[in-house]
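Notes to self, Gfo/Idh/MocA family oxidoreductase:
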Amino acid sequence: MSKKITSRRKFLQNAAALSTFFILPRHVLGGKGFLAPSDRINIGFIGAGHQAIGLRDRFTATDQVEILAVADVYQRKVDEFIKALGEKRGKACKGYGDFREILQRKDIDGVVIATPDHWHAVMAVKAAAAGKDIYCEKPLALSVKESRAMADAAKKYGRVFQTGSMQRSAREFRQGVELVRNGYIGDIKEIKISVGDGPRPFDLAAETLPADLNWEMWLGPNEYVPYNNKLNPYPSASLWAEWRYYKGLGGGFQADWGAHMYDIAQWGLNMDHSGPVEIYPPDGQEHPYLTYVYQNGVVMTQHDTGKKNIEFIGTKGNIVIERGKLETNPSALRDTVISDGQQRVHFSDNHYTDFLSAMRDRSKPVVADAETGHRTSSVCALGNIAYELKRPLKWDPAMENFLNDKEADQLLMRKLKGEWTI
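result:
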């Protein structure tokens, strides 16, 4: 009996000594892939509509974040956002009616901006100044100078900024762009974009304002337009908000879908820090479509075919890309393996973890940073300026102004009301 007690005592002493040197990793305690709450990134959502709901679910699926706050001018949207989130996460998410309250919180590391386009620039600039990293939906802004202010603010305050151009994290677009950049279809001569036209004048009738919707705050930097349910649908509606189609609130299909497809054109041409030098509105003659010309001679035209896609046309073939689909001519190009010795673009197969990784590393999100988003947003805005003025324009992508056209230069910025100037 004495020997057994001595042996047990010695075993416990040895075990205690070993415990000094062995620290169990978190995944052993919480299962494979487990990330302790203290290691998760705390984010707040600005906007609680359809797009925000999709982003909420995608960020939650990474299992790398805690969503601690959400702000929206429509209280029912805030309530529904938090209720759905509570079914996935136990940690409390607090709701606000004013996004600035989220920016004041020291425990928030970054924000996801998923509001109507007319708010993006103001919110992003204020978020950067408040020390928050930023994921902002596309298009970044309605005007060139607004998106330039966003990119400059991210740089000034050292913030990680990811543009919501998530097509860059999809295989078909990455493969198509690498084929283009490596010359598989020869020299690029033409690009055809199919997205749709620019915005139309506001013409919606006034409707009764819901009691829990702060319309003045929804308008924010904009001049007054009356409330209509199509602009901010009831939370239970399946309708996507139609503010995007009206001038001053959105940029029409030209910006809404153009921010996706012009983005891929810029990527394929390696123009993420530049842009076209000439823009021609449709004239029914020499330029039947909205036309952009790049310094290297590539011509890009916008066709409204009803599809949302992009076609690169080269001297040896062509490539058509849309979501979930890649067509090549010659057909064998579709499955070509791009080797490490060739031109490669940044690999991202998850736009959201790409952003979170950059936050952890304090690095620039290579796939779609603020400057990239600004340049794509600018292409959309330049086309809408050409639509409005109905005349050819010459653009300097380095100086970011028009050549000898003061009237066009005035449209590079829009008036922001009162306290919301940036």
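- The chain has two domains: 41-166, 167-199+250-420.
- The longest strand covers residues 65-71.
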